[in-house]
Every structure is written in structure tokens, then in C-alpha cells.
Amino acid sequence: MKDKYYKLKARRGAKRAAIAIGHKILISVFHILKEKIGYKELGIDYLDKRNKTKTLRYFMRKIEKLGYDVLLAEKAA
Fold first, then answer.
1. Domain extents for the chain?
2. What are the pLDDT digits (tens) for 23-75?
3. For residues 5 and 21, is the Cβ–Cβ distance under 8 A?
4. For the packed helices 14-35 and 2-12, what is the interaxial angle rounded to 10 degrees?
5. Among 51, 57, 45, 54, which Cα is nearest to 3's?
6. Taking a C-beta distance cutoff of 8 angstroms, is the pair 56, 75 a contact?
7. Secondary structure (3-state) at 43
8. pLDDT tens digits, one per residue of 4-30
């Protein structure tokens, strides 16, 4: 949730981000109580893993705005 808050805060502002996160928590609690299931934390980097290409493009643009050329190559396993 913290990661989502900071992404929203950057785009929409702190107050709207706080309301949006509160809404997400309320919806989560509703489903947990309704379906009688446990809460599972997805992890701090869940959104980055889920949107890998989007995250790469975002950081590439930020680095290019700072005046650098970006060349990406996948790391060998």
C-alpha cells in the first residue's frame, strides 16, 4: 500500500492519495469479512514486478530527462 500511495501522491497530491488508499483498505476489509479469508500482503515491490516494462520506461524517461543516454541489457542468469 505504501508504494501505491507514493505513486498516487506524485500524480494526484497527498490528500487524494490518502483518500484513495483509505478506499482500497475499506474495499479489502469488506472482501476479507464477506469471504472469510485471511489478508495476504503482496510485498513492497509487487507493482514493480507486475508492471516491469512500464516501470522500465518510466525510469528510462526520468534518466533521459536528466541528460543521460540509456542502454538496457538483461542481466545474465
1. 2-48
2. 999 998 999 999 998 888 887 777 777 888 888 888 899 999 999 998 888 88
3. yes
4. 140
5. 45
6. no
7. coil
8. 888 899 999 999 999 999 999 999 899
